[in-house]
Design goal:
heterodimer; A: alpha/beta; Urease, subunit C, domain 1; TIM Barrel; 2 domains; 9-stranded mixed β-sheet; 7-stranded mixed β-sheet; 11 helices; globular; B: alpha/beta; 8-stranded mixed β-sheet; 6-stranded mixed β-sheet
């Protein structure tokens, strides 16, 4: 018996050894240095002739190339401009597939207007083609999940744009709870919500219920074993996490009146609010600032129709100038383009009032800070994930190419696009 | 009470006086001196002069070579870039406010319907278009029909006088008839429940059947030789198809998939109509065939592939690939699908993906003019052509480059330095369109979603 166990161990080790050997070439690739004529670290001024060294998926050194020794055997990539891997602060990529056919559209469940219990992790298609598409422009992290279009449509997650499964890709499994105010979440034919007033009444009723659920649960916990057993309610559990500040409520809004409603709701229930879209935010800058709420602003090139009619390409610049935390997003698209690319949206924002540095921040470090993942991504600093985008010129310029994308120290795209 | 209105009347009179003086100013030649000029026909001029008079270009060339008329108003544009007004071969501005604008749901083939009868000249989209440097548009009905109606070619004459009806925008032939093309579509957009076709085979059959009828109609008209007794009853639908077969009306054909593109080429060959292929997501797959048929292409550039099955393989490279095959290439906005304000971006992304700079710039201007048959009037900066141009503060293929002014037939129609014009350039209250456009067949666009 003992001998048998030993031999089992032995063969186990052998397998480990073989696996390790098989992995060696790729493991060697994972040791990487990226040199750039300009390196935008987003954690200080740009470095001229800089280098980023990535060891075992994390940044191990960064600085002027002449002062950093790249260890022997490291693969070195070179580019004119190097930035952190880009972050798309709100997308539906991985849910709203490239074909736009019923079978590849999982971003929105219409069976009921309030379904916060829907988890993004259960719908994320890590191998969806549009993930590869945005990755080829340098996007390495996406905040994605249930889309605008229902009062509360479900939850969002944060993923790296790589990996074969959701488990491989996801870095935050349950981030925000997605809600929508405005006509896109309204119903016709006598169904609710059919108006703005009803939308808010329904949301308030849900949060009041969640408060009571939480109180009941807390009382039960205090009573310990003497308490009556209570059954779990996944919807209420999710809303309690919003009330507890564990998950922000991401409220998609366009009109100023709906922005005001979202602020009113957040104040009443004291939850963490992220404004999403916020086309008319420029008329409520003082209120948004006073509330300390970040804005994940609509794509700069959103079409000025319907509830978007009053959007301005200068809103990002106005909010940033006022000191409101701002990130850019690719948003949700029902038709073509099936996804936008935050790199392009940042470029047009830079052409409309944001400085280059500010524009780049909205798709790197500022996005990471809002999303709460800045300890891992969003800037090039020692200890952070080895997520890097390489360009042959000004990344925001129309005619520049993304020449490579690196995630966790692995080269995931070398398409010149 | 009456006195309270006096100041306003005075203001009105003052405005009239100003407007009139502006109108008079047009009669004087104007010389724009010192800009980099991109004439499209001919090399770029590092420091050039553009002279315009009575709505036409009278001279273009290097500063040293151009004699400015003594009575000309000189405008210093040193450091700026001047290029021709942009030509969009495929737009829906003003015609998509309710319904599809063109043909209705009664049947798939309605060539007698005119989009000119559906356009609101007050649509803010026109203001946004001039903010993007556009001066000439082909406004089309949607793509939800095999033949959705007649298109209209327009100039964005937004000032002096202010337009009151779409007629003010028309581009007319020498006989005063407004010019336009014919919109056709194939593939999934034009397939619906009966009486619409349910398959590609049926789609092509229905189109052939109508063109054959039109041919027979034309034969009857010819045989009648003006004899009212022998003339068939006038048929607006067939009459329009006859115009297409006679080359008087260019067919602008929506088509995406490679096999649908081949169907268009087959139909064009059978019925001898002049055709421009529009969108052509799969155009790169049949570039040899398109080149052999000597058919020009108006390409749409979309930020990502997909969004519909037929556009799964669309790519930024299409323009460059067709260019290398010798196919004439233009771009279009398909506004509202892409925003006219960023039209130059379509060419820039094509250049990013391998198209030549010259080809990309031509694709925004002269190539489009040629596809509308308007190359003698617009599309390049050349003496004798209409004074339609844009003044930019940078390179046209740069994201940072703003359109500063847009001129149509010698009249300034957009000036970014004026607050009311700046509004349309960047957006804000009043600069958008309150209704969601409806092109044909995308239920998810109108039912509940926010786009």
């Amino acid at each position: 018996m003992i001998k048998g166990v030993g031999s089992q161990f032995a063969s186990g080790f052998a397998i480990v050894a073989i696996v390790a050997l098989a992995c060696l070439p790729s493991a060697a690739q994972a040791q990487l240095a990226v040199r750039g004529k300009v390196v935008h670290t987003m954690a200080g001024p740009p470095i001229t002739d800089g280098v980023v060294v990535i060891q075992d998926g994390k940044i191990s050194a960064i600085g002027v190339a002449s002062q950093i020794a790249v260890p022997q055997g490291f693969r070195t990539l070179e580019a004119a401009v190097v930035t952190p891997g880009l972050i798309d602060a709100h997308s539906t990529v991985g849910f709203s597939g490239i074909l736009n056919q019923p079978h590849d559209q999982d971003q929105l469940e219409h069976s009921s207007p309030v379904q916060p219990e829907l988890r993004a992790i259960d719908g994320y298609n890590a191998q969806e083609d549009l993930i590869e598409w945005v990755r080829s422009f340098g996007v390495t992290t996406i905040h994605t999940g249930h889309a605008p279009g229902e009062l509360i449509s479900g939850q969002t997650l944060i993923a790296k744009t790589t990996g074969r499964t959701a488990a491989d890709a996801v870095i935050v499994e349950a981030r925000a709870v997605a809600a929508t105010l405005g006509t896109s979440a309204q119903k016709t034919g006598g169904k609710s919500p059919g108006t703005r007033g009803k939308s808010m009444a329904m949301l308030r009723a849900e949060f009041i219920k969640a408060r009571e659920y939480k109180e009941k649960r807390d009382r039960a916990a205090a009573a310990g074993e003497k308490a009556e057993p209570t059954s779990r309610d996944l919807r209420m559990e999710t809303l309690v996490r919003v009330l507890d500040g564990e998950q922000p409520l991401l409220v998609n809004v366009q009109r100023a009146q709906d922005i005001a409603s979202a602020l009113r709701l957040a104040k009443e229930f004291n939850f963490k609010l992220w404004l999403d879209g916020a086309d008319e935010a420029y008329v409520l800058i003082d209120e948004i600032k006073a509330a300390g709420v970040p804005v994940i602003i609509h794509p700069t090139m959103t079409r000025a129709f319907g509830e978007h009619e009053n959007l301005s390409m200068e809103t990002a610049a106005k909010l940033v100038a006022a000191g409101v935390p701002v990130a850019l997003q690719s948003g949700y698209e029902a038709y073509v383009p099936k996804t936008r690319v935050v790199l392009f949206e940042a470029g047009v924002a830079a052409a409309n009032g944001l400085s280059f540095d500010q524009a780049l921040r909205t798709i790197t470090i500022d996005a990471a800070k809002i999303l709460g993942v800045d300890a891992r991504v969003g800037s090039l600093e020692v200890g952070k994930d080895g997520d890097i985008a390489l360009y042959d010129g000004d990344p925001l310029e129309y005619t520049t190419h993304c020449t490579g994308t690196v995630i966790n120290g692995r080269v995931v795209s070398e398409t010149v696009r | 009470m009456r006195l309270r209105y006096l100041p306003r009347i005075v203001v009105c009179l003052a405005v009239v006086a100003l407007t009139q003086s502006a109108a008079h100013a047009q009669d004087r030649p104007r010389a724009f001196v010192g800009a980099k000029i991109i004439p499209i026909e001919g090399d770029e001029i590092a420091a050039g002069t553009l002279v315009i008079e009575k709505g036409k270009i009278t001279a273009v060339g290097p500063v040293a070579d151009i004699k400015i008329p003594d009575n000309a108003e000189k405008v210093d544009v040193t450091g700026k870039v001047i290029m021709p007004g942009l030509v969009c071969t495929h737009s829906h501005i003003g015609g998509m406010r309710t319904g599809s604008g063109g043909a209705d749901g009664s049947g798939p083939i309605q060539p007698g319907v005119r989009i000119m009868d559906a356009i609101s000249v007050h649509d803010a989209g026109f203001k946004r278009a001039v903010a993007g440097g556009l001066t000439t548009l082909n406004i089309m009905p949607g793509s939800g029909h095999l033949i959705s109606g007649q298109t209209i070619y327009v100039k964005l004459r937004l000032e002096n006088p202010k337009p009151r009806k779409i007629d003010n925008f028309f581009i007319t032939a020498s006989d005063g008839i407004p010019l336009g093309g014919l919109k056709m579509a194939n593939g999934t957009n034009s397939m619906h429940e009966p009486p619409f076709p349910g398959s590609r085979g049926k789609s092509a059959f229905l189109v052939r059947e109508q063109y054959i009828k039109a041919r027979e109609y034309h034969d009857k008209v010819t045989r009648a030789a003006g004899d009212p007794a022998k003339l068939p009853p006038r048929d607006l639908h067939l009459e329009t198809l006859v115009e297409a077969m006679q080359g008087k009306r260019i067919v602008h054909h929506h088509t995406h998939r490679h096999d649908d593109i081949m169907t268009v080429l087959r139909l064009a060959s059978e019925f001898q109509f002049k055709v421009v292929l529009h969108h052509i997501s799969d155009g790169w797959k049949v570039a040899d065939e398109i080149a052999a048929a000597k058919v020009p292409c108006s390409v749409i550039v979309i930020d990502s592939p997909g969004g519909k099955l037929e556009a799964r393989d669309s790519k930024f490279e299409t323009g460059g690939i067709l260019e290398k095959h010798g196919v004439p290439v233009a771009f279009h906005t398909d506004d509202y699908i892409t925003d006219s304000r960023v039209f130059r971006r379509s060419a820039a992304l094509a250049a990013r993906a391998g198209m030549s700079r010259a080809g990309a710039l031509k694709a925004l201007t002269l190539a489009g003019a040629e596809m509308l048959g308007l190359q003698d009037r617009v599309g390049s900066l050349k003496a004798g052509k209409d004074a339609d141009f844009a003044i930019l503060q940078g390179d046209p293929l740069s994201v940072y480059c703003q359109t500063q002014q847009t001129w149509v037939e010698g009249v300034k129609v957009f000036d970014r330095s004026i607050a009311s014009d700046h509004l349309y350039a960047v957006g804000g209250f009043g600069a958008g369109t309150e209704l969601i456009p409806y092109l044909c067949c995308y239920d998810n666009l109108t039912a509940g979603s926010d786009q």
